[in-house]
Structure formats: structure tokens, C-alpha cells
Amino acid sequence: MKLRRRALLQIFAGLLVLSVGAVWLVVAWMHNPRRGLPCSIKLQSWNLNNWQSFGGTWIVKNGVIRNDSDERGAKIVTGSPYWRNYSVEADIQLLGSEGDAGLIIRSSDEQTGVDAYKGYYAGLRGRESQMNTDESLILGKADYQYTEMQYVRLPSGVAPFRWYHLKVLVYGCHIVASVTSALHPDRTYTASAFDAGCYKKGRIGLRSYASGGVWKNIRISPATEADMKRMLAVRAPFSLPHAGRESLRPLMTAAPPAPDLTSVSQLRLMTPGSMRTATVRGVVIATMPQLYVEDATGGAAVHAANHVPLKIGDEVQVSGVVSPGAFSPTLRDASVRVLWASTPNPPVFVTSSQAATGSFAANFIELSGVLEAKSLGRDHSLILRLRNGQQAFQALLYGEQAASLYENLKSGSLLAVRGVCVVTPDYTHNLTPFALLLRSGGDLVILAGPPWWSPRHLIELTAVVFLLLLLIQYVHSRMEQWRLRAVLDERGRLAHEMHDTLAQSFAGIGFQLEALRDELPDQGAARTHLNIARDLVRYSHEEARRNIASLRPENLAALGLVEALKRFAESKLSGGNIQVIATGNEAAVALPPALADTLLRIGQEAIANSIRHAHPSVIAIRLDLVGKTVTLSIHDDGAGFDSSAGGTGFGLDGMRKRAEMISAQLTIESALTRGTTITVQASLPPTLTWKTIHLHAWNYLKKLALHGTPHAS
């Protein structure tokens, strides 16, 4: 037993060491500052699964990632928070003449908000009327407030819709940034800074401020001191005069006077089929899957005849043929002119009942709802079915973000969605009164996950509790078997001790009394007393042998219950003329140890009582197994007794108590001169299979309720 326990402890210690080692390796791999480097982000087959956005409308389209929002400080981050010395480079394009866009390095503790992160930022800044750092390469540090560390003005300026290659490197506490224009690939401008209290590690990110931006060819590589020195070797003058600049392509164009401007609300009042043209001025609120503009009176869909690069928030002038529509107008064959970049309109907060009336059709609105179902359309669109109170509606998202969001959304979650409200069957398919066209994944916010009491979670919880109860029952059963084995081992030890001491002492005393008796004359009181003492010692010796036999655990696994009882009876009848008949079919199934041991003790007591009191000529032992019921019967043809008299002895009481321990039924049938039959009937525990597992669990719970702790089988 000690060797077995020591082996188990050694195995446990080995498993513990292996587990600790595996955990250490995983943690070391996760904290490796070079894990995942170098890497290139291939945007053709890429989505935003591994990126986390903070504001903005980030989408992946045509091999680029873009943010069409003019939000101040919109950012999206990815990578390992344990990256230390590395560089990140990308091709960048500004979508406005003002604001800036660039790359974040060593980022951590990000939140939504202007400069709400810790890290370094390198970017390109357009025209800024209130600062002297306009049209420059800028380098700064953010700690929930922005500090400019260095800037370098570009002689050709920073033009919107022009590609620039930006690279930023961090090594130790040195930060270096460089930029090259697509117009002048042979000219590189560099800005650098040293931060004594620098951030040591962090992720990478993309950021724009008061302007949209486009990024492509993003690459992250480990950096060395030699890489840093090569970048610092390429320097341009710190500041160059403005006279040598190339002319910029202006985003703001002078719009001709438009005395015939019409509001969106007036378009709704026009006669259908009149083919009238009208001009409206408004702000772009959506570009996918259709262009929508909104003014102070409402929104309208636009089918543009000319292609103009637009972003959310642009102020535009649209002229086209009016289709009034039942709830919102549409401008067809429209020409679109960009007036200037503006701030995106905030959404209007409405209820689902208000939106269902059509009063907010083609308007940018926000509302919340519980996600009931989700699916992916044939055009790779994400279709969400939501419910707010009694009102159901849909939310639709087009683009490559749909697949990534589909995996992250769970039915039953509470979502806040904002988008353009549409009521046409082209989008609702007559399934709901209205639908929302989401512009990007940023228009969908998970307010709360699904409740834990959902049917699926309740089923999973029930299954876990059920398996836990089975595990507890199994452990309890094994502990009972170990306890029984320990009891049997202790009985064996006591039997050996009694055999080596008590029995041998009785044998020695008897031998000495026999020798003393032989030395005395045949007649006399002393010889008579010695005969009595000899008989007492012999009787005590027999009792000691019987008790030793009762304590010694027979090898039931090898002999079987019937053979063990037969050998017990024969050992009691050595030299006698009583016949022992034993039959049974216990080979059909193995009896549980506790059940077999209890039946053995009852059978031994019944055989001993028969030999001691009944003086039979035949003792019959029979064991029957029928289904899940085992029956042991001990029958003799001896003197018997009147069982109706109610008198019981110590042996019968012991058999009844043993039968109660295994929930068995004990029956005693006897009559004077007709012999005695003792029958024990017990049920086998159910076999643990997939078909009987529910019965096993039910019996366990029933025993637990009736007795507090079920007895192990």
C-alpha cells in the first residue's frame, strides 16, 4: 500500500512538473517580443477579426483599409502587447485637406476618445489654420493627451488623395519616422526623437484625426540598432520655405450659385412621374450599398451618374431626377459635387415604433434591440434580426467585415445599432417594417451579452451538474471500495495475529493439560477437573479457529461466492457425516465486492447456525442470478424451530443488519422437524452505460434523498 501511494505521488508530482513547464512555455511564448514578426497584412483576403477599433468607420475594401469618418482621434489597433523593438510601415492616403492620418507604435491602454491611449504616433498632417505644423511629417507621444515631439515640413506639402509611404521605427527609447511621396520616391524626409521615460512595449495601430484615411501594404518587422542608424542617415532640412510647393488638388471647390436649391422635405411633395429635376445640398451619411445624403429636413437616396470619391461627412450638392417615393425621395441620374469636408451628422435617437411608421426613412438613426437571429446573405452581407419590445427590425452590413462580425455576435445579445433607416422591400424583403443600413462594424455596439439563463445555457448547466454528480458518485464508490479493501486487509491481519498468538496458545495449553492428565491416576478429583479444563480449552480453540476463519478474507474474485461458502461448510464438517450441496450461476456476472462480502458473511452465519443447532444431514447452498436480482439461499433438513414464535438469537439479528446494509430482503422459513431455509435477495447496481446512465443517476439521487449518503456498491 505504501509503495502504491508513493508511486501515485511520484506520478502526480511528474504531472505537476510537466503542467508547470507547459504553462511556463506558453507564457514565455505569449510574452516573446518577437512573436509574429515579421508579418505583412494582406488585405485582399483579410478582415478585422484581430483588430480592435476605437471610433471611426473602419472597413476593408479593394485591398485597402479605410476610415471614412472625420471623427477626432479614431484608431484601430492590433498585434502583441509585448512587442518591443520593431518598425511598422504602410502606404497612406488622406481623405481630406485638413487633419492628419498615420501609424501608432507601442500602443497600450487604448480607449475611445481623442488621444485616449499610451504610445507614439507618426503621421502626415494636412493644412491646419491654427498651427504652424501644417503639411508636415509629425512625431508625437500620447498619454491621454498629445505632446508633439518633432515635425518636418514637406516642400511639396501633404495633398489629399495622394499616396505616401510612411515608416516608423522604435528601438529602445529612440523613435524615428520617415516619409516618401509617390510623386518623388527619391526624396525621403525623416523625423526623430528620444524619450527618456519611454514606453517599453505595445501594439501597432492606425489613426486619423479630423480626416478620413486609407492604408495599404502594412508591414511590421523586428528592428535593430543598425536599422535605426540607417533611417537616421537619411535626413532632409528641418524646415523648408513654402514657395517651392507643388500646387495641391483642392478638395473644396467653388460651387456656383444655386438659387433653385430644394430641401429634402419638398422633394417628398412632388408629383410621382413628373420627371422633375431638383438640386439639394446635404451631408453624406452613407456610401454603401447606396449613397444617402441628409439635410436638416430629412434624407434621400442618390443614384449618382458620375463617380466622385466620397466619405462620410462630406458636404455635397446633388442634382438629379426626383422620384418622391412613399416615405423618402430618390434622386436618379444625379450629378454629385463635393463642396467641402465636414463633420459627420450625429444619429437621431428614436424608438423602433417611430422608425416603423416610415417617418425617419433615409435618415441616420440609432436604436437598440435584442438579437434574435443572424445570417449571411448571398452577397456576403450580414443580416441581423433584432427586436425592440414588440417591434422586430433588421440591420444590414455590407462588406468584408460581415463575416468577422457574424462569428462574434451571439443570439440574445443586446445591441445598439446606428444606420440609415430604409423601408423599401429591396432591403426589408417584407419581413420587417424597416431595416437599418450599417456603414461599418463601428455602427454596431454590444451593450450586453446573452443572458445566462438561455435554453442552451440551462441545458449545458444541467449536463455539467449531471456529469459532476456522476463523477462524485464514481469517486465516492471508489473510496468505499478502498475502505472495504482496507477493512478486509485489517481483518486478515487480525486473523493472522490470532492464529499466531491466541490459537497457538490454546493448542499449547491443551497439550500441557494432556501431559499432566496422563501423569495422574485414572481415578480422582484432580483428573476429573483436568478433563473439564481440557474440554474447555479444546472448545475455545475451536471457537478461535472459527473466528479466524470468519475474519480471514477469502479470495472471492478467484473462488466465487458459492465455492467460498462450500469450503467454509466443509471446514466445519471435517470428519462429520453431513453432506454439502452447492449450486449457482454466479459466473454470468461479477458481483460487486461489497455485495459479495456481505452475502458471504450472511451465508457463513447461516451455515454455522445450522451445524451448531440443527444437526442436519444435508446443507444446500444455492445462488441464483435473474436479471439484476441475486438470490442466496441456505437450506438444511435439520431440527428447525418455530419461526412464528418470534424468538431470535444474536446470529439472526446480525444477518438482518447485514442485509439492511446492502438494501437486501432477508427471509427465514423454518418449522420444527422440517428444517430451515434462509434466503437473501438483493439488487445489483445498474451498469453505467449510455442507455442506463439515467437510471444510475436516478438511483443515486433517490438514495441520497432517503439516506443522506448512498452506500457504494
TrEMBL record:
One Gene Ontology term of the molecular function aspect: phosphorelay sensor kinase activity
Pfam families xrefs: 3keto-disac_hyd, HATPase_c, HisKA_3
InterPro entries listed in its UniProt record: AL/BT2_dom, HATPase_C_sf, HATPase_dom, Sensor_HK_TwoCompSys, Sig_transdc_His_kin_sub3_dim/P
GO cellular component: membrane
The keyword Kinase belongs to this UniProt entry's keyword annotation: yes
Domain Histidine kinase/HSP90-like ATPase: 594-686
Keyword annotations from UniProtKB, A to Z: Kinase, Transferase, Two-component regulatory system
Entry-linked SMART domains: HATPase_c
Protein name per its UniProtKB record: Two-component sensor histidine kinase
Organism: Acidobacterium capsulatum (strain ATCC 51196 / DSM 11244 / BCRC 80197 / JCM 7670 / NBRC 15755 / NCIMB 13165 / 161)
